[in-house]
């Protein structure tokens, strides 16, 4: 497995791959857990070469967010990557990815990018689009793997590919959870034992919505109201039911519904969702 630290090395590595090889890209911010590993495993299973990027991207963090304290565990991440069969890890410094101060930036579609995460985290998706487009250009993947855990991000990146005619396919990967139900996240390490118990209200509320739907409840307001009763020890940012274009809907539509939740537990902000 190669460890590439700068753009030049990545470009020459990519050029060295045979033209008939299939390349999979897995973009991450590192501190790898089993959620990331499932993306990597899917890429390794379906491509001759998998490039894993590890980059804590400053432009997607707001000024009061956790960019400085975000966990950075590169050595351990490389061991995991190697054991999963990754061909190359791309782990650049910030100056390598952002050599210019005042760059061209992209914005998400107005009706998708400024609600939910985009409303609370000003400029977040501009930063995501900026880094993801750079990674796509540098690695020229055939397939790029993204988690359903970050539903809004996944849907906006799909639009990036569609709107700018990028020659690659986005592969959505299911959310991996801990045994207690909490969706794996690099931010879970911030939680104390008590906070973790409180955080479980997030997946429990989603599970409750699923049960109510299975028992015949379709009305979105009723589902949201019922689920809110479970959310006693977290500070809710939003709990919403939308279609796959992120537009709120009044009743569940099979194969076209998303339940989105974001809540704070202490200072830690967690997101989760349900694809229906
Ligand atoms: P991050 O390092 O948080 O930027 O995540 C990198 C990629 O891993 C993104 O596509 C995430 O959606 C995905 N991911 C993060 N957590 C999980 C999880 N628990 N299950 C599946 N994918 C995940």
How does this structure look, described?
The chain is an alpha/beta fold and 276 residues long. It is 38% helix and 19% strand. The strands form two sheets. The protein has a six-stranded parallel β-sheet, with helices on both faces. Strands 7-8-9 form a three-stranded antiparallel β-sheet, covered by helices on one side. α7 packs across α8 and α10 packs antiparallel against α11. The radius of gyration is 19 Å and the shape is globular. The N and C termini lie far apart (38 Å). The mean pLDDT is 98. The structure holds adenosine monophosphate (AMP). The site of adenosine monophosphate has 17 residues, from α2 and β5.
List the SSEs and their pairings:
Elements: E1 2-4, H1 7-16, E2 23-28, H2 34-46, E3 49-54, H3 74-84, E4 88-90, H4 94-97, H5 110-113, H6 117-120, H7 124-139, E5 143-147, H8 151-163, E6 169-173, H9 193-199, H10 201-214, H11 220-228, E7 235-242, E8 258-265, E9 268-275
Parallel strand pairs: 1-4, 2-3, 2-5, 3-4, 5-6
Antiparallel strand pairs: 7-8, 8-9
Helix pairs in contact: 7-8, 10-11
Bound molecules: adenosine monophosphate (AMP).
